[in-house]
Each structure stands twice: as structure tokens, then as C-alpha cells.
């Protein structure tokens, strides 16, 4: 099927997965308020067997969107004037967002019930946030990037503060909202300046104007700088990372997992498209900024993570560090690095969601047992869960044999293609540093005796969750041993956006 | 003569807009800041009039200076924030950093403007196809120039804005609703996961 955006109806087809998610979100909202609720019957016996129908319905919506996403592979577009782009880069990113959303919903089943959250609004906001991430990935216009960013962000602000009985959740929501609104101001100002410099908001047309030198230089540079600040805040890289640990710690754990994966991935994908398609001609101007952000982020985040004994905070700093690794790919700005970025985001989604899922389970579907001491003796009491957690931690650390290792290899290959030797060395050294804090948790799990033996019974793991954890761990090992097929897929996915000229390499000192 | 009158009016409005924007930041009490903001928004509406964007000017006055600012004032009065409050900036060091950054950005922009003034080039802020715009205003009217692309070229952002507003309403309702399910209020149930019992 060929789409020509002269007819506005074609946007419906181009945005089919997003529309499905939005429509489904509205359905879930209505189901949530119309369903019967009887607080009196919600005893402890029922808590073990809660009704998950809203959760399963949400999953069905995500599956429907995934089908639509697969269908879009058969669709091509004409020209590059549309507000929405139909290319494989976007579709690959959509798989990551849908995977993250599905895992977050799976994680939330029992959590939502135990914490007595309003299920309808909760699941609907996850669907809307996912639609926002997909708008960002599919945007060819800065206005659509901005609106997608806002749909995603506002949903996630609300989700962060969702658990209103928890003071930390409310604090995290407020903090995230105020800082996020501030960074939105930067983003919007940058957008306005870029429009002033180039006279268009279409990313392809901006790329053309920047390449031919038609753009006003001063305004363009300020615009690039402000857009970079807006994106850097959303991906959470140093020095725009200050909100991350507090917000990740305070938010409900499934939301934290979703934030760490989907929000970050969406911001990165849009960051890549805007900077590598729109601003590639000004590479010499933004390359030093990205280089320094990448280097400082990797060093600072990994060193601060060493001092964390709260597992959620540790994973928060770990997510900042991973954002630093991905910034290396942006600094490299070649197609191998971009493919590496997509591959890394995919495996990062699996391993980070997995680790947070174990945090939810160990926290007994609540916000407890978050200290590293609470994980002592887990290997003895829940060996299967401990094995899964260990696989996820090893993958996050980038241990050979897991997908995390291959992801870092691909990032390093991309960096080597652009001759970024210093960044590559920093990446490797900081990976070694990160082994310490990931393996410390694994050491507590297997080598320490439980602090309080009475608390150390069998943990309740819902059946769908068991399945997801097992599949995730298996996928990480499988991708670690046989990464070629997925990597080829990522390579073909970036082919559409990568117009990287060979001359680019000569710009790099 | 006509041009001179317009540029004089523009200069006055621009100075008032920037001056009141500074007043918003430096105002001692929230109410004073708010009134400065109303004046800033009103001057920007005046600039829209000079640019012959009458519809935008009317919207600016009705929506921003009118409705939104009145709501702001209500909230400030209800929260009783109308009195003086303590300085919460983190000392002089941060103020200096802020001054340095904003001064630097402003300085570069002003320098750029001065560079271009003699050369007859625009700052890049003028519309590249001003004549085409005039023509379409004649054809469609000031309202049609906005409405037509909004529902054709930019229909996707328009629809996404609808979703955005829905999300914002849902989020605000979820967070602001007084009664948490299963009894207990926000204040009463803040002690953790046990609050709903």
C-alpha cells in the first residue's frame, strides 16, 4: 500500500498503531469507571486471585497495535513532506515501546490491585504514554515531536504520582512535573529558534536548509543547543540527570521500569532523527557537546551508582549510565552506531524491565524491601527468581555471553567507525566499574544469609510474570549468543534514515 | 510616516512586553508577578495587531490575558499565597550563573541583530513568503488562514493535541480526586500502602 499525504485520510493508515492505542485507552478509561467495585469484598483471600480483566484488556490493545505495526511494513510513502514518516526506523522503535508497555502492564497486574490504584486510569495512561512515544518516533515534524513528547510526559507525570498514599510518590511526581515543564520550555524555545532559522519545522526540510547553508547560523545554533537540552533532560544524562534518582525511587515500581525504558528510548529515537536527519549539516557544531555529555555521563553515573544501597536508586543511576553509552552512538553518527543504538535499546528494554520486575516481586507487590540487604538469601529461598535476576544483572553489566555484551560491542564498533577512541576507552573502563555494583547485588542474592529469616518465604510470582521473566532471560542469552539476525534487522531499519556521507568522518578531530 | 508610527508603536509595546516579563521574574509577591504577566501578554497581543494577525490578538487577550490569568489569580488567592515570601534562590552564586547565561544569550542575539541592521538582511524572523500570506488573507480572511491549514496540513498535530488534553484532564482528575477508593483521604492515608484498609 502506498501512502500519499496529499489526502489527509492517509494519515489514519500511517498512524494506525497510535490510533489503536489511543482508542483503546479511551475504552479502558470507560471500562474503569463503569466496572463494579466493591471494597468490602476485597479481602486478603481475594488479593491472591485478583481479577485482572482490565490488565488483560490492555494487553489485548497492545497486541492489536503490534499487529498494526507489523502491517505497516507493507506500506510505503511518497515524498517527504508529510508530518509523519513511515520507515523501518520508526517501526523498529515501535516494537521496543510496545514491548516495554506490555511488560509494564504485566508487572502491574498484582501491583495495582495490592496498592489499590485506580486500574482504569492507570492502564489507560500507560496506553496514552505509549502512543506518545510512538508519535515521537514517527514524527517528521518538530511540532509532532513536541506533541508526542508532551503526551508521553504528562501521562508519565500522572503515573509517577499515581500512588497517592505514598508521600514519596507524590513528591516524585511534583519534582518530575516541575523540572519536566522547565525542560519543555527549553525544547519549545529551541523549536521556535530552529523555525526562525530555517523557516520550516519539517525535519527533512531543516536538514536540507542546514546542509545548503540557507539557515541563519546564530539562531540555528541556539535552537540546536536548546533542543539538545530538552532531549538531554528526557533521556536523563549528566548534567540533566538530577531528577532521575528521586523520581525513579518515588514512582510506583512498574512506572519506574516503564520510564527507564520507554521514555528514554522514545527520547533517544527522536533525538537521533532530529539530530542526524535535521542537523547533520551542523555536525561539527554539536559533536563536541554530545561528546562531552557522553563522557561525563558515563563516568559520573557509574561512580555515583557505586554508593547506592537502595536497589531502585542503583537501577536509576544504572539507567543514566546506559543513556551515556547510547550518547556515544549519537556522537559517532554513522549507520552502524545507529543500528547499534536500536539493538541496544531493544535489549536494554528486556533487561531493565526484567530487573525491575524482580524488584516488584521482592517488594511483595508494594514499595517495600528496596534495600540491598533485603535481597540477601534470595538465592536460597527463591532460586528460580534469583537466577533470572542474576541473568538480568549480568546483561546490564555487559557480561560476555549475554545480550548486554553484544550490545556494547556494537556500540563500540560504531564508535570505532568514527574513530572515537577516547569515548570507546571510557565506555570500556566504566563498564568494568559497573560490574562492581551489579555483581554486589548478585553477591547479596547468592552469598549472604537473610537478615530476617522469617521474612524469607516463597515469594508470590503470578503465572504470566513467570512466563515473561523466563522468556526475557532466555531472549537475553539467545541474543547474546546469536545476535546476528536481530542486528541485521536493526541495520536494515536504520538504512532509511542514514544519509551519512563519508565526508562526515573527516569532520571528527 | 505610516511606517514610523507602526515602528514607534512596536517599540513601545516591545519594551513594555519585555519589561513586564522581567517584572514577573523579579516581582516580590505572586499577585504582582501575575499582573505583570497580564500586561506582558496584552502587549504581545498589541504586537500581533501590528502584524495584522487580528484573530491571534483577540485570542491572546481572551484566552491568556482573560481566562487563564483569572484562573491563576483565583488559585493564588485560594492558596493564600498573596503575601510576601522568602527568597528561595540559592544565593548569589546561582544568580550570577543565571545572569551570565541569560546575558550571554541575549548579548549574542543583540550582536547578531546589530550586525544585520546595516546590511538590509532580515534577522530570519520575517516570513519568507510574506506576499503569499497577504494574498491568502485576502482570499480566506484572517481566520481562514489559521483554520484551513489547521484542519488539512496540520491535522495530525491537531488530533494529537486532543489526546494531550484528554491525558492532562485524566491525570489532573486522578491526582486531585478527594476520596481514594476504599475510604481514607490523601492526608489520612499517607502512611504507606496500608492507608486504604
Q: Kindly, what is the distance between the CA atoms of the first and last residues of chain A, rounded to a whole number of angstroms? A: 45 Å
Order of H and E elements of chain A? EHHHHEHHHHHHHHHHHHHHHHHH
Distance linking N and C termini of chain B:
76 Å
The overall pLDDT of chain A, averaged over residues, is: 87
What is the CATH homologous superfamily assignment of the domain at 7-83 in chain B? NADH-ubiquinone/plastoquinone oxidoreductase chain 6, subunit NuoJ
How much of the sequence lies in strands of chain A comes to under 5%
Portion in helices of chain B:
over 70%
Please give the domain count of chain A. Answer: 1
Largest sheet: spatial strand order of chain A: 1-2
The major β-sheet of chain A equals: 2 strands, parallel
Structural class of chain B: mainly alpha
Strand segment count of chain B? 0
The top-level CATH class of the domain at 7-83 in chain B is Mainly Alpha
Spans of chain A with pLDDT under 50 lasting ≥5 residues?
38-50, 505-509
Number of helices of chain A: 22
SSE order of chain B, as H and E?
HHHHHH
Written description of the protein model:
The complex is a heterodimer of chains A (509) and B (197). By secondary structure, chain A is an all-alpha fold. Chain A has one domain (2-34, 48-507). Chain A is built from 22 helices and two strands. In chain A, strands 1-2 form a two-stranded parallel sheet. Chain A starts with a strand and ends with a helix. The relative contact order of chain A is 0.10. Mean pLDDT of chain A is 87; it is low at 38-50 and 505-509. Chain B has 197 residues and is mostly helical. Among the domains of chain B are: 7-83, Up-down Bundle (Four Helix Bundle (Hemerythrin (Met), subunit A)), CATH 1.20.120.1200; 129-181. Chain B has six helices and no strands. The longest helix of chain B is centred in the middle third of the chain and has 27 residues, at 91-117. Chain B is globular and about 55 Å long. Chains A and B meet through helix 2, helix 6, helix 7, helix 8 and helix 10 of A and helix 4 and helix 6 of B.
